[in-house]
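Summary for the lay section of the report: proteins are chains of building blocks that fold into shapes. Here we show the chain for Helix-turn-helix domain-containing protein and then a coded description of the shape we predicted for it.
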Amino acid sequence: MAYDLAELERRLNAGEWLLPGEAAALLDVSRSTMVRLLNAGTIGHRKKPGAGQYRICNPSDVKRLLDDARREHRAD
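The coded shape description reads as follows.
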């Protein structure tokens, strides 16, 4: 699925909790890597209200990892 990264980042900056696939797209990681980050607690999550087992990602954790990745990229 193709995501509008600018729109996802706008939503992230507004404090919106993102689906794992959306956060993975922003961080440029695979969905399996995103699941590992969620399971390890690197990215906090909660269950999406009324949606069974769907998880949503803590925006502050996603933003922290995105900022870290950008700093690393600039340092290269």
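Put simply, here is one thing we learned. Residues 5-75 form a domain with the Multidrug-efflux Transporter Regulator; Chain: A; Domain 2 fold (CATH 1.10.1660).
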